[in-house]
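Hey everyone, long-time lurker, first post.

I ran two proteins through the pipeline my lab uses and got sequence/structure pairs for each. Pasting them in order. The first:
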Amino acid sequence: MLRGLALLCLILLPEAIAATPPDSLGRRDFLAAFRRLSPLEQDEVLWLARCIYSESNRPEEQRLVAWVVRNRVETRYRGDTYREVVLEPRQFSAFNRPTPRRDLILSLTPRSTVPGWQQALRIALEVFQAPPSTRPFPITVRHFYSPVSMPTDDPPPWASAGRPYRGPAVAHIDPTRFQFFDGIDARLDPEPPAYTSPPPTRPARLSRLWDRLRPSGRVPRPARPIPPQRPGHR
C-alpha cells in the first residue's frame, strides 16, 4: 500500500509543480526581503522598478536599464537618489508629462498585480542590493535610448555625439530596441533650461494673477512618503 502511494506521488508530483504559479515562491521571497529594507530604501526600490517597468517588459533589458539608473545615482548624475534620477525632467519618457500610463505607473505598489510588475520589482531589488563587482558595464554607462520608441528616425542629440557601448553585457540586446552609451556627460547632454516667464503683456494686476494660476511647465513630483516614527521618538 505504501509502495503504491509513493509511486502515485512520483506520478502526480510533476503535474503539481507545473500547476504552481511560476513566481509564487519568488514573490514570497521578494516580499520578505523587501520588508527588511528601511522605508526610504523601499521607496527607492519602488522608483527603480517603476522606471524599468516603464521602459521594457523583457528581463534582460530591464536589468541593464536598472544598472544605468544605479550608475546615475552612484555618480550623482541628475540626482542623488533613485527617485530624483527617475523624475528628472526629460530623462525617462514615461514620467515627462501627465498621461494615464504615468498615473498607472505611479500607483504601483509591492502588492500590485499588473502583468509584469512583480518581475520588475524583483529585478529592481536585485540590482539595488547587488555588490558593485557584479556591475555589467562601466559606471560611466549612464545613457540609453530605444530606437523603436522614438517618434522619428533621428536619435537624441547626445546619442549622435557619442558612441554606443559595445561590451559583452549588451551583446545579446537587439540594437533596434536599446542602445547604451558610455561617457556621455553634461556637455553632451545639458540640463533642460530653467523656465522663465515671458515679458508681461497685460496689466500688472492681471499678470500677477496669471503668474499664480499658470502651470509651471514641469510635471508635479509625487510626495515622498514620510517614514513612521518609533514610539517615544519625536
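...and the second, right after it:
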Amino acid sequence: MGWLSMPLSSMHPHKTPKEYLDAQFTFEHPYDAEGKRIEAGPAHTLPDGASTRGLRVIASSCLRNKVWYAAIAHVENGKIGTVFAAVVLVRWNPRASDGYVFAYKDMDETAGPFECECPERILRLLDPTDNHSALVWRRRCIRNLMRGSRKLEDGMQIRLPSKIRFTDGYEGDVFFIRKRGRKTTLALTADGPPCYQISNLARREFTIIPQTRVHKTLFG
C-alpha cells in the first residue's frame, strides 16, 4: 500500500496522528453468514447467521510523530482474538503549504518493516507467532531495546561496526566516551579532548573494548 495523504479537515475530530490512527484501526463491521459485509446501523438487528469482525488498538505509540507502533487485536462478536503488531510510517507537517498536513503508510509485522523501535510495553502484548518475518522484526526490536538500556560511562572505549566519516574529514570506528551531565561526546584517545558527537549513540550497534588495567608492583 502507498501513502495516504490528507488535510487537517479529513482528520476531524482528531488533531494528532496518534489519535487518528488509534481510531482508524479500531472498528467492527457486520458480515452475513456467507462472509459478505452488510450495512447495519447501531439500532439494526443483525440477520440470523451474521457476525461482527474487526480490529481494536490495545496500545500504541507514535514515536517523534514519524512511526506509529501498535498492538492490535482481531475482534469477533466483541471478543478479543489474536494480537499482532502494526507499524505505520507517518509524515506530519502542520504547516504544509499545500494543506496536506498528514500522510501515512501502514503495514504489519509480517511485512518485515525496516523501523524497529517498538516500545517494550507494546511488544509484551503481542501473541506468539510462527511467521518468520514477524519473528525477525520482533528480535530486531528487542536488540534495539537492549542497546538502549546499555549505559555509556565516562572513559569507556567503544568500537563501531564500521568507520564513520565526520564533516572535518576524519574517519574512525574506535572512540572514548566523554560524559558531561546528559551530554555525550567522543574523544580519540583516553586523555584527549572531546571531538565528535553521534546521534542516538546508545541505540547504535557497538562493542565495548575491555580496558587493560596495569597493576603496580613493589618495583614499579
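Reply from user beta_strand_b:
Welcome! Quick read of the second one: The first strand starts at residue 4 and ends at 6. The longest helix spans residues 132-149.
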